[in-house]
Amino acid sequence: MGRVYDCALNFKRKHPGGIAWRLKKHCEVVEKHLNPGEEVKFAFAGQKNSKFYELFFSSVIVLTNKRILIGQKRVVFGYFLSSITPDLYNDLLVYQGLLWGKVTIDTVKEKVVISYLPKSGLDDIETNISEMMMSEKQKYATHERNV
Q1: What is the DSSP letter of 93?
Q2: Burial of 68 (C-beta count, 10 Å sphere; 0-12/13-18/19+)
Q3: Rounded Cα gap, residues 130 and 81, in angstroms
Q4: pLDDT-based confidence at 18, cuts 50/70/90?
Q5: CA angle 137, 43, 88 (to 5 degrees)
Q6: How many CB atoms lie within 10 A of CB 91?
Q7: Is the pTM of this model over 0.90?
Q8: DSSP per residue, 26-73
Q9: What whole-number distance in Å separates Cα of residue 45 and Cα of residue 59?
Q10: What confidence tens digit (pLDDT) does each residue in 44-97 have?
Q11: By 3-state DSSP, what share of the chain in percent is helix, strand and coil, each rounded to 5?
Q12: Cβ(86)–Cβ(136) under 8 Å?
């Protein structure tokens, strides 16, 4: 398959227990929008929603060397794609509940909530997002000073 699907499937096998459906279709959406020179660093799947009773908004979240991509294939037709660049990234909130966990990515424009994540994978998710965003944000800061 593709690079995104392999990464997401690897995470799902390493950390079972999350709720996500149609992983292959969601990965195809992100795969279609990868820019030349972008490398997939990390991928995981969850529900892009903020309410505990919404179980039908599966999506795949992909960290590349340049940004975060969130892809969601609709059932009948079309898809959604969100992109979070390091200059728009503000903060990350991790919540661990009784059965699942939740990650909130705070950006300048909105808060993106990814829920129904496996508890065992929350540390892995937090580490990868934080490390990637902090290293990329430093590149933006030095580039802005030079301009």
Answers
A1: E
A2: buried
A3: 21
A4: confident
A5: 30
A6: 11
A7: no
A8: HHHHHHHTPPTT--EEEEEEEEE-SSTT----EEEEEEESS-EEEEEE
A9: 6
A10: 999 888 666 666 778 999 999 999 999 998 888 889 999 998 888 889 999 998
A11: 35, 35, 30
A12: yes
The structure tokens listed for 118 are 């496996």
In three-state secondary structure terms, 80 is: strand
Statement: residue 145 has pLDDT above 70: no
Name residue, tokens 């929008």: 33
Q: Which amino acid is at 25?
A: K
Which residue bears the tokens 């892009």? 48
> 72 and 57 in contact (C-beta within 8 Å)?
yes
Cα 68 from chain centroid (whole Å): 6
Q: Is the distance from CB of 81 to CB of 69 less than 8 angstroms?
A: yes
Pair 69, 86: CB distance under 8 Å: no
- Structural contact between residues 135 and 66, judged by C-beta atoms closer than 8 angstroms: no
Buried-state track 109-121, b at ≥16 Cβ within 10 A, e below 16? eeebbbbbbbeeb
Q: At 59, which amino acid appears?
A: S
- Residues 123 and 70: their CA atoms lie apart, in Å, by 19
Q: What angle in degrees, to the nearest 10, is found between the helix axes of 23-32 and 3-14?
A: 140
